[in-house]
């Protein structure tokens, strides 16, 4: 797949200019952050609510990382000093694939449970179309996109209850903070302290990639862009499309808007697919 946007990194720009340019204000004033949703998982392929279930990348998801994310990042000559992921394998695996293929497997990956996908409660493991047939499309879209709409909490009768609640990858979740279901708003609040940490790193000059989940990416969009609760309900993030932000290192503010790297028609098609309930 071809990519249509190229953003040279400060490092690559320096190679094309005299050494004096390296001390210019332009070279030292801004830094970039990349937010990327992991490749499709087994549950994504089956159109199931996944949440905190540790579904691995599907073969298609691996190919998305290899043919969508990596070429876009490579063409734009983006480099990283640190990568953030959740503790869920689909997030970590996507990050590892990207670093390996960009020949920077030495870059550290910081895993954080607070970057896990929102918990879909008792919807976990069910096909979205089946749930829509039972509760109606309006209710399902409210659970999926509504800012304060909380799905029913996961119950012991759910086949994934024990595999989630007893999974050692969640050992760092503090007592009393393990969710049984979450709204988008709850996920936004959970992500906020991690975002503050990442922003401090970005403003100190670290080149950061955040390889996260769909709802977490939306939460980050709200924190970064400062958009309203109503507006974030309509934001949809396609898998493996790098979303690039540039920050002014003096003011801490954004320079321009987000740029989605890649073939724009592909991005439009995949964004619409994410927004729909599907079959």
TrEMBL record:
Top-rank taxon: Eukaryota
InterPro entries, per the entry: His_Pase_superF_clade-1, His_PPase_superfam, PG/BPGM_mutase_AS, Phosphogly_mut1
Keyword Disulfide bond in annotation: no
Site for Transition state stabilizer, residues: 213
Region (Disordered), start-end ranges: 1-22
Positions annotated as active site in the UniProt record: 38, 117
EC number: 5.4.2.11, 5.4.2.4
Catalytic activity: (2R)-3-phospho-glyceroyl phosphate = (2R)-2,3-bisphosphoglycerate + H(+); (2R)-2-phosphoglycerate = (2R)-3-phosphoglycerate
HAMAP family named among the record's database cross-references: PGAM_GpmA
Protein name (Swiss-Prot/TrEMBL): Phosphoglycerate mutase
UniProt organism field: Drosophila suzukii (Spotted-wing drosophila fruit fly)
This protein's encoding gene: LOC108020517
């Amino acid at each position: 797949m071809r990519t249509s946007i190229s953003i040279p990194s400060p490092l690559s720009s320096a190679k094309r200019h005299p050494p004096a340019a390296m001390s210019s204000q332009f070279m030292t004033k801004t830094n970039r952050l990349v937010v990327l949703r992991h490749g499709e998982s087994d549950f994504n392929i089956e159109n199931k609510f996944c949440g905190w279930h540790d579904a691995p990348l599907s073969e298609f998801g691996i190919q998305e990382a290899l043919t969508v994310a990596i070429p876009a990042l490579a063409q734009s000559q983006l480099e990283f000093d640190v990568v953030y992921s959740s503790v869920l394998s689909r997030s970590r695996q996507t990050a590892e694939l990207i670093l390996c293929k960009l020949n920077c497997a030495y870059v550290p990956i910081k895993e954080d449970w607070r970057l896990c996908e929102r918990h879909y409660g008792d919807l976990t493991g069910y096909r979205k179309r089946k749930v829509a047939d039972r509760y109606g499309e309006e209710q399902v879209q409210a659970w999926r996109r509504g800012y304060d709409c909380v799905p029913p909490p996961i119950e012991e009768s759910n086949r994934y209850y024990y595999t989630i609640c007893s999974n050692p990858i969640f050992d760092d979740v503090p007592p009393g903070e393990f969710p049984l279901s979450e709204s988008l708003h709850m996920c936004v609040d959970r992500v906020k302290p991690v975002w503050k940490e990442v922003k401090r790193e970005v403003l100190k000059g670290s080149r950061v990639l955040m390889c996260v989940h769909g709802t977490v990416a939306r939460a980050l969009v709200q924190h970064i862009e400062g958009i309203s609760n109503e507006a974030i309900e309509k934001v949809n993030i396609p898998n493996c499309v790098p979303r690039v932000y540039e920050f002014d290192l003096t003011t801490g503010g954004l320079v321009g808007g987000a740029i989605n790297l890649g073939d724009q028609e592909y991005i439009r098609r995949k964004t619409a697919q994410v927004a729909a309930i599907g079959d």
